[in-house]
User: Which sequence fits this backbone?
């Protein structure tokens, strides 16, 4: 199984990592989708759960390192929302570490790919084996 | 179009005389000049093709004040529910609050394959009998604990208190490990397929355990399991009871010290579902007076006239809802009581949120869940 991953990336250091990975010719599985946000602080638990609702197996959040936020809004809000979403999916019976918050240095393409691959390898089962997925099988 | 005619007949909307009593008492109309139950019914009867795109149909908070006042019992909330279902079919969608987290949780719970792990919060001292044929329906309180922890509400206090009361009353009950949301908010927001999924999963879970009776403490679960499940699932004949009407509850021996001394001053916020839908006003008051030995001071608007907590099914919460909540809190403050007792986890969440956003929460009336209040006051010293 190749895990379906949705990445929420901030527009700044997070996006620069993805950009430099692409420039360096590094690749990641096609089951990874990326949504670019202005800042991770604008994200909350509802969007992460929405990803699982639509069949994602894992959600990765890619943002700037501590104290590096361009908006000076480093207020732990994304950590709080991450904890909330983790608690909720645990209650929903989803096993394992499904939400990863990665804070990377700017232009660290290799670091991004390593973290992403590590995250994908850790996911062995679908988050919720949705009934709709059965129809996709030949 | 013939379906709309059926629903007009079922909800008795064709009896509407345009008298406007519904709009006069509607808490939403008071703050939102655009919203009028009377005009929505009139528009649906005269220009049915235009009603689905009308944004106003999403503003109703479902408090049932209009139906109580209506001389012809036009069931406006059922009518709105139907319009919302059809409106979704026409491509309209509501805007969910909390970035749709509650909606996603409900949809994820509705999947057949979901195997929840949701009973961690039950304290050790509560005696759950797995073989009992009575089930205690918890509701979504464990999820609310996580979702609303930043406003400092602990919703599981309500089922914990309720289960302690059941234990003390000697009622043996079990809890369902994979219980889903009852679907109240999905059906009220017009998401029929989501509601059917949740209902089917719940019924499957309940039938598997050969449950004979369901007791619940949440007014919305009570309404949905009793009325809506019977309406949407023809095979559903379960006996559903609200905790406040379990006969053994009122007979519990309590320990509140000397009766009549140090009585806490409380005021009760009637929940819409238990109140205006079922007209059960005395049951919660009786157990509050008898078990907690509390001095009950009524708010200016109580029972049939009680103001709603201003909550939509987790959507379109805005300035109108906030103003309704503020007004309710002002009414509660005016009683001079120490505690504002709520019997619905949602009322507790919404009123607490309104109180917090006004600041100085510690100086104002304390919002407590009824079952938590009773079990903390009356059962603790005996344990």
Assistant:
């Amino acid at each position: 199984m190749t895990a379906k991953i949705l990445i929420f990336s901030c527009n700044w250091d997070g996006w620069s990592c993805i950009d430099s990975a692409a420039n360096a010719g590094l690749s990641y599985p096609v089951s990874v989708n990326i949504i670019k946000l202005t800042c991770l602080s604008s994200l909350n638990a509802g969007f992460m759960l929405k990803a699982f609702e639509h069949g994602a197996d894992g959600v990765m959040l890619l943002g700037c390192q501590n104290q590096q936020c361009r908006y000076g809004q480093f207020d732990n809000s994304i950590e709080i929302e991450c904890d909330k979403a983790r608690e909720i999916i645990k209650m929903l019976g989803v096993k394992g570490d499904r939400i990863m918050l990665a804070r990377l240095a700017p232009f660290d393409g290799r670091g991004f790919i390593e973290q992403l691959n590590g995250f994908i390898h850790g996911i062995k089962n679908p988050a919720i084996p949705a009934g709709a997925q059965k129809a996709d099988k030949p | 179009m013939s379906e709309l005619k059926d629903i007009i007949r079922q909800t008795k909307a064709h009896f509407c005389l345009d008298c406007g009593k519904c709009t006069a008492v509607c808490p939403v109309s008071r703050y939102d000049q655009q919203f009028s139950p009377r005009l929505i019914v009139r528009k649906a009867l005269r220009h049915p093709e235009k009603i689905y795109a009308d944004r106003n149909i999403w503003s109703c908070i479902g408090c049932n004040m209009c139906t109580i006042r209506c001389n012809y019992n036009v069931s406006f909330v059922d009518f709105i529910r139907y319009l919302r279902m059809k409106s979704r079919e026409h491509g309209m969608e509501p805007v969910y609050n909390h970035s749709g987290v509650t909606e996603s949780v409900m949809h994820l719970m509705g999947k057949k394959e979901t195997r929840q792990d949701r009973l961690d919060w039950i304290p050790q001292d509560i005696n759950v009998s797995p073989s009992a044929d009575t089930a205690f329906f918890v509701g979504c309180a464990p999820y609310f604990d996580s979702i609303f922890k930043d406003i400092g509400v602990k919703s599981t206090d309500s089922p914990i208190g309720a289960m302690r009361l059941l234990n003390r009353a000697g009622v043996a009950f079990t809890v369902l490990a994979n219980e889903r949301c009852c679907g109240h908010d999905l059906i009220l927001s017009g998401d029929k397929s989501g509601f059917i999924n949740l209902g089917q999963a719940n019924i499957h879970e309940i039938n598997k355990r050969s449950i004979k009776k369901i007791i619940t403490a949440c007014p919305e679960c009570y309404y949905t399991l009793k009325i809506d499940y019977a309406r949407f699932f023809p095979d559903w004949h379960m006996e559903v009871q609200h905790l406040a009407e379990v006969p053994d509850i009122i007979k519990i021996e309590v320990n509140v010290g000397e009766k009549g001394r140090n009585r806490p001053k409380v005021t009760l916020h009637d929940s819409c579902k238990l109140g205006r839908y079922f007209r059960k006003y005395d049951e919660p008051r009786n157990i509050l007076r008898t078990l907690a030995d509390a001095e009950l001071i009524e708010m200016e608007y109580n029972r049939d006239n009680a103001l709603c907590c201003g909550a939509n099914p987790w959507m379109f919460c805005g300035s109108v809802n906030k103003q309704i909540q503020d007004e309710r809190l002002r009414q509660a403050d005016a009683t001079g009581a120490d505690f504002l007792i709520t019997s619905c986890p949602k009322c507790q969440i919404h009123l607490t949120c309104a109180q917090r956003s006004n600041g100085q929460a510690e100086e104002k009336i304390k919002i407590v869940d009824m079952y938590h209040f009773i079990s903390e006051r009356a059962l603790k010293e005996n344990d």
Notes: The mean pLDDT of chain B is 89.
